[in-house]
Design brief:
The chain has 357 residues and is α+β, with helices and mostly antiparallel strands. The chain has a single domain, classed as TIM Barrel, CATH 3.20.20.
Length: 357
């Protein structure tokens, strides 16, 4: 039987700076040759991220569980690199999700239950991840514009989804008929959902490089955790102790004394953006600059600062506030944007729902 119970948030400000914790770079969504439509082995995929300074990786194969113990690690394995056991639970055209830090394959009966709605499929994925002692991340909701805010909002126990996905076909920014994923996020947050935004690359192609291919290195998370273990990383993410990025790196991302503080690591950002794999979001107009926005309910920009550092006092006037950093640079005749997204700070006491057998 499934029971649901609420765990009160220990602090109304969830993302708290703490000098005893470290930052770890990782990717929660990638594919290997085992899925049939990717081009590289689990070992070679692992080596790609290891060689580029990542600290953790999830080999999230479609409805398959890749036991990290079966993957041959690089011969020069660093002490600060791990694999986190995961799976992309793939419910056809209804929903895909990463089951993060699981003990084994998710029950196939929960992948795409017969006759279930999209909401029910997402809920089943959450149940399946919890049954394997993991957490669920809803993947690429705008892929084929598959999952709307209305599909996601009723789901209990879902506290993470992909805000940014590096695959070229996932429609992160929507179109004239569909909301962007960030607009979906603000809809969910405004309606009282406790959900955090993840960035991943969803890489399939390591042998062919190009804008039309789903290449690695186009999105990742920076997680603030007590230690580099699967449990520590997954629990830190589940509680919102991370930021998502498409290339912008932060030297400060904290909440202390009811104040959000954010600062850009300019050298780190330049280093990341020098990679041939990172791809910006093309925009028609702009200028070379950093901008920091503090965003509240309904996606309203409460304050915007041009520059590389900013603070914002959080009050109960807004049920949540989140920080977003935008870096704009010239790219040919147009401009391109890169982003970092801090997780929302809640002031209304919203709670996690935990599903137990």
């Amino acid at each position: 039987m499934i029971y649901r119970f609420a765990i009160s948030i220990f602090l109304p400000l969830l993302f708290v700076g703490c000098t005893s914790k470290k930052w770890y770079k990782g990717n929660t969504h990638v594919h290997t040759i085992l899925c049939g439509h990717a081009d590289t082995s689990p070992e070679a995929v692992t080596a790609w991220y290891h060689e580029r300074g990542y600290n953790f990786l999830c080999l999230s194969e479609h409805n398959q569980f890749i036991d990290p113990a079966t993957v041959k690690m690089p011969t020069d394995l660093r002490d600060d690199f791990i694999l986190i056991p995961s799976e992309e639970v793939t419910g056809g055209e209804q929903a895909h999700s990463t089951a993060l830090n699981i003990d084994g394959v998710v029950d196939p009966r929960l992948v795409q239950p017969s006759g279930a709605s999209k909401t029910q499929v997402i809920q089943a994925h959450v149940y399946g991840a919890e049954q394997q002692h993991g957490h669920s991340i809803l993947n690429h909701p705008n892929f084929h514009y598959r999952n709307s805010a209305e599909d996601i909002r009723p789901v209990e126990g879902l506290h993470m989804f992909e805000l940014h996905n590096g695959h070229p076909a996932v429609n992160n920014f929507g179109d004239h008929e569909h909301d962007s994923v960030e607009e979906i996020w603000d809809d969910l947050l405004t309606d009282g959902m406790l959900i955090y935004g993840v960035s991943s690359d969803d890489a399939h192609k390591f042998q062919e490089i190009g804008l039309e291919h789903s290449n690695p290195g186009r999105g990742w998370v920076m997680v603030q955790a007590d230690s580099l273990t699967p449990d520590s990383i997954s629990e830190a993410m589940y509680h919102g102790n991370f930021y998502a990025t498409s290339g912008v790196m932060l030297s400060l991302a904290s909440v202390k004394d009811r104040q959000i503080s954010v600062a850009v690591d300019q050298a780190g950002t330049e280093r990341e953006l020098s990679s041939p794999f990172v791809v910006g979001h093309e925009v028609a107009d702009g200028k070379n600059e950093y901008k920091i926005q503090f965003i509240g309910p309904e996606g309203r920009v409460l304050e915007a600062v041009n520059g590389t550092k900013a603070t914002y006092p959080v009050s109960e006037q807004h049920s949540y506030v989140r920080a977003k950093v935008i870096y704009t640079r010239k790219a040919g005749r147009e401009y391109e944007n890169f982003y970092a997204w801090m997780q929302p700070v809640f002031t209304d006491g919203r709670v996690h729902f935990v599903i137990q057998d």
